[in-house]
Amino acid sequence: MASLRAGLFMMCKSRVFDGVFTQFCHKAKHTKLAQCATANIGIRNVSSSYNSSINDEDDAMFLHGNKLHTPVMLDEVLEFMSPSENQVFVDMTFGAGGHSKAILDACPKTTLYALDRDPVAIAVAKQLSSKCYGDRLVPLEGKFSDLGKLLSSHNVRHNSIDGVLIDAGCSSMQMDSAERGFSLSKDGPLDMRMDSNRLPHQPTAADVVNALSEIDISKILKMYGEERQARKIARAIVQYRETFQPIATTKELAHIVSCAFTHREARKRKDKLSRPAHSATKTFQALRIFVNNELNELIMGLEQVERYIKPGGKLAIITFHSLEDRIAKRFLRGIDYSEKQSMNLRQKRRLGMAKDEEHGKPGMPMEEGHKNTVWKQIRKKVVIPTDDDIMKNPRARSAKLRTAVKCDDNIDND
Q1: How far is CA 216 from CA 53, 220, 231, 387, in A?
Q2: Fewer beta carbons under 10 A from the terminal one: N or C of the chain?
Q3: pTM over 0.85
Q4: pLDDT in tens, 59-89
Q5: Which one-letter DSSP state was computed for residue 381?
Q6: Beta strands 137-141 and 111-116: pairing type?
Q7: From CA 175, how far away is CA 198, in angstroms rounded?
Q8: Residues 1-27: pLDDT tens digits?
Q9: Distance (Å, rounded) from C-alpha 411 to C-alpha 356?
């Protein structure tokens, strides 16, 4: 998958699209897709009027002035972090700054490093820094994997950070902006890059659905969207682009995915609150994760966090789907990411003995719950939003908060 992702952009550049809409459908099995394509003519005409360039400063002013962002589980995060004087924090997903502002406002002598890969979010951070918090708020533009070099550029040493917050996934301001292409309910270019135009060579979601094979698209949907109908959706995507035109907009893709389901199948799809869910929800999630390499970035970010948090320092991780939460849970428990899920006790013992023998240690059974001496989890179960939180911010309904403290006997002074 890594080599596939690395070669995707060149594959997209080498493929030639004529962009011509075929009005005549010569096979009966394409009738439904033909109707979908006809409906998408208007969508494509509307989307062509979008201005693809984003004015970061104007968007930052709009977000800051209208207070559009409602942080997820803010009270729980503040209670856990409990900021005090001269402490240093890192918000690895600054977004619109809701959590960061609350931490800085809770104690006037704290410092916070605001990391984000989105240029709009960094523009918000710079405005807040210049107008409100000064040197106490330090914007860091980059991915999770860039955390180490960015902190080093500010002379931040290992084992020196008091608290780190990771609010994983897509931010509300990205979802609410049609031009970013994240939302299936808002028509816009099929982009989904969290970095926007900061990395011009990064493939977009449109590149993925228009260049990859049916098998590869199916793998992406199954792996990153946990979509049971991945093959059916991938087949519809390939049939549409080969018969009619390249897929260019969010509404266009949502229509195509909907066409892959019967009315009965579509009615059965529900969200976590048992409400009707759009057929394309998991498809959009899968494409977004793949385009932004989110899961690998989360893993690399957590590994760097472990080096920079001081003994006794605090880590809060907010996740929004099972793939992210599984990574967070395994990290805090010290379980290898490649370890098979749902192993029985005998399999776990064998794995533990094999790993010990690889490192020249006597083969000892590995017991569940005693694998990790780096992190002490504050609660055995995850924290979920209250009904009031969900009423204020419906997108928080699937959020899970995991909290942990770094143990004192794991010090790396490199």
Answers
A1: 30, 6, 10, 40
A2: C
A3: no
A4: 444 444 444 467 889 999 999 999 999 999 9
A5: S
A6: parallel
A7: 18
A8: 444 444 553 433 333 222 222 222 333
A9: 22
